[in-house]
Design a protein that fits this description.
Layout lengths: L2 H25 L2 H17 L10 H18 L1 H4 L21 H9 L4 H12 L4 H8 L3 H18 L6 H7 L1
Length: 172
């Protein structure tokens, strides 16, 4: 194994779980997330020697994932998909300690358009700053702020009353 491959493997072992989580948050589907991550990591591997600042590898991979996710939506086969009235049954996983609240909130986040969801994922799930989010998405900080504001307003409108923390406290 070359030193290059060893470096890449070490990075992959340390970061793969977190990157898969980010991919899932961007796509909203486990299988699509795995595909997105695999494609992104292949592109990272090809460019591994070009990434001089090893501290910025995460940002570089997030940028690849966002770009790949956006380009997937531009492909023709995606446009042939159509929404249905009845959503097929899934196998949701609910964390016991949050009584399913996290999954319920995530279901509401998934209703956002993909660009707004990307901003919310990077800002609140990945906890990036406005500047870091703007850099990853290739947009201005002002656009991040306006997209965030609109996304949060949409989430407030779409969030059922039983998910509101104030309402939940009143029930107890």
């Amino acid at each position: 194994m070359t030193e290059r491959d060893a470096d890449f493997t070490a990075y992959l072992e340390a970061r793969q779980g977190r990157l898969l989580r980010t991919a899932y948050l961007l796509t909203g589907d486990q299988h699509q997330a795995e595909d997105l991550l695999q494609t992104s990591l292949a592109k990272l591997y090809l460019a591994w020697d070009k990434v001089r600042d090893r501290g910025s590898v995460d940002a570089y991979v997030r940028r690849i994932m966002v770009n790949e996710n956006n380009s997937l939506w531009r492909r023709g086969w995606k446009r042939r998909e159509s929404p249905t009235e009845v959503v097929p049954e899934g196998n949701p996983v609910h964390d016991a300690y949050d009584e399913g609240l996290g999954a319920a909130v995530w279901a509401v986040v998934q209703t956002l358009p993909r660009k707004a969801r990307a901003v919310v994922v990077l800002r609140y799930y990945e906890q990036l700053s406005e500047a870091e989010t703007a850099d990853v998405l290739g947009i201005s900080v002002g656009t991040v702020k306006s997209q965030t504001s609109r996304a949060l307003a949409a989430l407030r409108e779409r969030t059922p009353a039983d998910l509101n923390p104030i309402h939940r406290e009143e029930e107890r």
